[in-house]
Amino acid sequence: MWPEARPYSSGVTHDEGDETVHGTSMPTVSGESAGEQDAAQAAAPTATQTAEAYRPGYELVAERILLLIADSGLRPGDRMPTENELAARLGTSRSMVREAVKILSAIGRVRAQKGRGLYVADDEGMLGSSRWGGFFLPTDLDHVYMLFEFRRVQETAASRLAATHATPAELRAIEEAAETCRQGHVTGEAAMFDHGDDEFHLALAAASHNQFLVAAVREARRLQRQSNIIGMHGAVGGHATEAIEEHAAILQAVRDGDPEIAAQATATHLDNTLEDYRNEIQRRLFG
Question: The whole model's pTM is what?
Answer without folding.
Answer: 0.61
